Amino acid sequence: MATGRTHRPATRSRGIPEATVARLPLYLRALTALSERSVPTVSSEELAAAAGVNSAKLRKDFSYLGSYGTRGVGYDVEYLVYQISRELGLTQDWPVVIVGIGNLGAALANYGGFASRGFRVAALIDADPAMAGKPVAGIPVQHTDELEKIIKDNGVSIGVIATPAGAAQPVCDRLVAAGVTSILNFAPTVLSVPDGVDVRKVDLSIELQILAFHEQRKAGEETAAGTGALPAAAPRGTAAADDSTDQGPDGDVPAVMPA
Ligand SMILES: NC(=O)c1ccc[n+]([C@@H]2O[C@H](COP(=O)([O-])OP(=O)(O)OC[C@H]3O[C@@H](n4cnc5c(N)ncnc54)[C@H](O)[C@@H]3O)[C@@H](O)[C@H]2O)c1
Question: What residues line ligand 1, using a CB cutoff of 6 Å?
């Protein structure tokens, strides 16, 4: 994948591989649902199915956390929620700014799921002077002239870019110069960042294109089955295919990718 991102080692602190880090939010989402239903323990198979990951991979991932579960009992749900949250840095509050408050930025600002996961929307920023002061999701939009001050005053380290593609790199540069070290980019462009800055890119159209590929392949298999011919591509889930699931570009990782 083309990337403007700083190359980083495949492992993070305490030797947890990046691929494992990318799956931790999937486990956390499944565990949170269990916790909300007051389920006390869960087996690796049940949790793997709920997270859309294979259970051997899950056990390996949890071994990096030092969590091995209890034979015949499984994993303690509450403790795992705590452990994964701590590993992901979610036990602390992360102020986030969203830049570009159009259709997407406003939808993100209105999304309640950030706050419940420890991400507080500290400010909404837009270049359109007509938007300044207008409340979106109860937060007044601030003009981009204020960007540096907002970042500094709120101690913001995570910025979300929801501007048109052409504005994304200059916005990114300003965020980084102001002290932001993690960027979630929704604009369809590859961002260049200096060492020490992480960029994650979300592109729903790429996800749809991947689904279109699978739809096309399924249609090919059906045609082949009808004619008795061999399918053009190996069916998913066979030894010829990888062990990826339908959840993301890298297999069972969230639909978000390094820029
Ligand atoms: N990743 C995805 O899955 C996905 C989905 C939808 C849209 N998008 C992308 O998200 C971006 C926003 O889409 P939208 O539909 O909300 O667009 P929009 O036109 O409704 O909103 C863009 C906003 O950005 C503001 N803006 C422009 N230049 C700016 C700058 N330099 N600094 C700050 N704000 C600036 C505009 O004033 C506007 O309010 C686009 O790049 C679009 O392609 C991505």
Answer: 99-105, 125-128, 144, 162-165, 167, 171, 186-188, 202-204
Q: How far is CA 192 from CA 68, 183, 198, 203, 230, in A?
A: 39, 11, 10, 17, 44
| Residue 138: CA count within 13 A, CB half-sphere | 6
**Overall pTM > 0.90:** no
111 alpha carbon – ligand 1 mean position (Å): 16
Q: Does 233 share its domain with 173? A: no
Looking up tokens 């239903």 gives 37
Residue 7 within a domain: no
> Pairing mode, if any, of strands 182-185 and 158-161?
parallel
Residue 114, pLDDT score: 83
Using left for φ > 0, alpha for ψ between -120 and 50, and beta otherwise, residue 228 falls in left
Residues 6+ apart with CB under 8 A from 128: none
Tell me: do 189 and 147 sit in the same domain: yes
Give the domain range for residue 49: 13-87
